[in-house]
Amino acid sequence: MRSLLVLARRATLLAALVAWAPALANEAPAGEAKPPPVPEKPGHFEAQPPPFSPGIFPCTGCHTGPGDKTRRELAFHDDVKFEHDAEHRWCLDCHSNENRDVLHLSNGDPVPFTESYRLCGQCHGDKYRDWRVGVHGKRVGMWDGQKTYFLCVNCHNPHSPRFKPLTPEPRPRRPEEMRR
Amino acid sequence: MTAPRKSLPVVQGEAQGEPEPAPGGVTRRGFMRTAAAGAAMAALSACGIEDFFRKSFRELSKEDVKALLARLEKKHSAKYGKAVTMAGTPVLPGVEFGYGLDLSRCVGCRRCVYACVKENNQSRSNPQIHWIRVLEMEKAHGVDLAHSEIYYEAAEVPRPGHFYMPVQCQQCRNPPCVKVCPVQATWKEPDGIVAIDYDWCIGCRCCMSACPYGARQFNWAEPALPKEEMNPVTHYLGNRPRPKGVVEKCTFCVQRTRAGRYPACVEVCPVGARKFGNLLDPQSEIRRVMDTKRVFVFKEELATQPHFYYFYAT
Amino acid sequence: MSGILDFLGGCARLVARGNRAYYAWLAALAVAILVGAVAYAHQFSTGLIATNMRDQVSWAFYVGNFTFLVGVAAAAVLLVIPAYVYNWGPIKEVVILGELLAISAITMCLLFVLVDMGRPDRFLHILPLLGSPNWPRSMLAWDALVLNGYLALNLTVVVHILYTGYRGHHYDRSFVIPLVLFSIPAAVSIHTVTAFLYNGMAARPFWNASILAPRFIASAFCSGPAVMIILFQVLRKTTAVQVKDEAIFKIAELMAYAMFVNLFLLGAEVFKEYYSATEHLLYTQYLWSGIGEHRALVPFAWLALFCNVTSFLLFLIPRTRKSFITLNLGSLLIWAGCYIEKGMGLVIPGMTPDTLGEIYEYRPTATEWSIAAGVFGVGFLVFTILVKIAVPIMTGTFQKRERAGEPEPAPAAVP
After folding, report:
1. What residues of chain A lie within 8 A of the CB of B278, using their CB?
2. What number is the ipTM of this complex?
3. Of B57, B84, B111, which marks where a domain is finished?
């Protein structure tokens, strides 16, 4: 039964992945993603899908069971540069050891990747509070209707959350450069 | 003295109640209307004489607005080779738009500037018109316009020690531009948007002198709008292609916002610095901003009372 | 009716005939007008991008000329006040020439507004009934009203006086005097409303000063009469028009006082800016000492000051005022000083730096110079035609003849 559920969840997420492939970039597209048809429930936000690297999810594809809890340098995920309070934390402080397809809160409760904001909100409560009402972060869609939230991780890489500088668009033309 | 109606007549079959007729409008215009009978108008429309004797948009009847929009749709569809729609969507009831800009977040990437251009059909060159201008200033000096730079070029933004302040039409509650316009070509709509009738503007540029925010731009020449870049979903008061010799500015994307959507600049901002919503809704993000953040208004001493608020979220 | 046709016919003959200098003058004006017309055709088809105005400096050469010429038009009142309020004979004889100048100046003002508009084809929009003028809030709507009203007023008075003079009758005092007296507040109003146009803009701290309207009036009273002084001397030499020396000297004396007020108000303005030294100082600073490498206006600012102070002294000191060489020099200097002050010294610093602190240094293009030349050509042509008709009427040589052989009537009583 459990494996069937896992299979179903995998299939859904894979479909979502394929359908929203352009949304995987860390930068937000200009309002092209359509909000999912699921109605808004209290505490649940219509959101963009998590920006997985291609092929990385579901994690249980490789991680079949609980692993070594010892804090160490990893062999496989060495492309992940970890700069998120690295002195005091490592992977398994957020990723669930028992089931790599979910994250976990500090009391151990599992949190799916689609609701990762609940985990971020544990430490960044003020940001979470602001994000819920649209003051922090980004929402697209209808200002008076259905909106799609951008997950925290759609803008902030959870392993290296500090914003990287952007390349600006070209400067405007000066008035003396506009001649006829 | 002319007393045009405050809100636009309903068009395209949206049932929102009968708008009251313009006070004295029929009798005063009676002569002009009978003189330019419908058939004559159609015949003359080809040579533009009909435009010469047209009334101000706010004084047109419902049928005339519908006819006008249809005529303009046809004209622009032919010119740009695509199916152009032009709405005359009136003010939504119970709505007063508010805009928030988070100065602690803006990185000066200018994505908003170009998303706006793409959405709103500005002239691309000679003149190049941008409704949003982003000022780069030094954190050490704060908001110091004399030492600001609009033409900054950098490999990466934000540049260390600098902050960025985008400026666009503030949709003032007490707009100096509306006060000085000699022909009432610009006015304040009840939902907060300061609108321009591009077909009534005489191009005197009084409003540009009066605007404290440099928010109004002028079509110094025939606008250069390539067909393939033209956005065909337009509104009469918003992003429809403008003619030469008239003033234009940000309209809070009236073609989007009166259809319930966010403005283009809000949606494209990659750092979530832009907030938008209904000031009359206490649950809206803009009201939350005003309730919980340190909000200020640009050039407050001029008492323009904008609908545009700058704030610091952190 | 036939009388009017005769009159018009006579006017046409007067205008068409003259000496070689006259034809050369007309030819020069025609060239200027043609150059302006061609340039305007180019601007009309291309758009105002043919000028150097841009969003950052959206009012410039045309509006500067307009502002200066409104002052010139208002200056007719400097003749009217001593003539009618103080009943001073020597000036009374020549007031009509001031009114002719006012008509020409207003014509140029209206033309400058027209060439500055982005959509001159929509001028109907400012008219009542056909358009939707923004009364009472818009100063430009008021300006349209008072300028046209002042033009109509002057035209009415002039046409009446000239036509009755042509008929050999005295003009109707009960009709003319009230209108002429009304032209005093009317003249003050045109320049005050124009000043309010700038004054009311909170967005432009350089203009948003209470001192602007008084300064406008003061400098208006300097510039217009300068033309009159030179014109009177020309007319005295070339026609039978009598202008007493004391009339000319009195005008110059009044101009000296006006220039004193102008300089005093300038001093007050400069003190306020430099002493309180707020951010608003930036605009005054741009004008007088430049900002960084942006110094385009500085030479003009000091040149205008030099012209104004020099002419003030020349007009104030009786010896230089009463010597025609220094008098004429002073007139030219005052014209130049006020012209620079109203154009480069007012419009450009008001917009530089712009509302977001950007500095765009504006210089007129060839198109703008050409169109301005054309407008001045039209204005001077109008003035020439009017003077060519008025002077013979004033001196009695252009009169209606009832029958042949009738004795020549006495010279028309000139206002």
Report:
1. 143-144
2. 0.90
3. B84
